[in-house]
Amino acid sequence: MASRYDIVVLGVTGFTGSYIVRAIATSPLFKGKTIAVAGRSEAKVCAALVEIDTDIGVAEISNIPVIIADTSDDESLEAMAKQAKVIINAVGPRFFLYRLHGETVVRDSVMNGANYVDVAGEPAFLESIE
């Protein structure tokens, strides 16, 4: 368990994921915690980290580890989950993404020992997860 990141934020290139990383980076509550970010495109994730770094002036942001994970690729989600203690799923904003791909992220998180948190507000998704 020691080799796992404390927190992995999935969906950092979007507004909400970017906001979550900003909040974690500037909060004393997360000082000393290991953080990684995940997304489909390494180039886009790295660009998002540089933008966050520029906005808040925390140089360590651009050095956060990047995990390539795609909600339509179960193997990549499983690999991400094996590296995390907690996964914050901020994928979106399209209303149907959690309904189509959210269960896979939840399942891979639970099956691989990671705790799961999301920002879903979709009743159909929330009611379908057991």
Automatic annotation (TrEMBL):
Gene3D superfamilies: NAD(P)-binding Rossmann-like Domain. GO terms for cellular component: lipid droplet; mitochondrion; plasma membrane. Coiled coil: none annotated. InterPro entries: NAD(P)-bd_dom_sf, Saccharopine_DH-like_oxidrdct, Sacchrp_dh_NADP-bd. SUPFAM superfamilies: NAD(P)-binding Rossmann-fold domains. Residues 7-120 form the Saccharopine dehydrogenase NADP binding domain. GO terms for biological process: glycolipid biosynthetic process. Belongs to the saccharopine dehydrogenase family. PANTHER family: SACCHAROPINE DEHYDROGENASE-LIKE OXIDOREDUCTASE. This is Saccharopine dehydrogenase NADP binding domain-containing protein. It comes from Pristionchus entomophagus.
